[in-house]
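Possible regression after last week's pipeline update?

I re-ran a chain I had predicted before the update to compare outputs. Posting the input and the new output here so someone can diff against the archived version. Not blocking, just want to make sure nothing changed silently.
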Amino acid sequence: MAHGGNEGEARQRAHDAFKSAERAGVKGKDLKTLQAQLDAATARENSAKGTPGQKRY
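New output (post-update):
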């Protein structure tokens, strides 16, 4: 399993939801909410991965 684990899956689900809404023509506040959820999931995934080369004790 790659670093990031469940966070990577959550980011992928958020990405899929955002793209589906975008294709369906969703606009305005709803699309911005999905974008914010995607950004937050991406940040959590990146945080879980840590810095490349970082030692974990």
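Follow-up from reviewer: compared with the archived run. The mean pLDDT is 83. Marking as no regression found.
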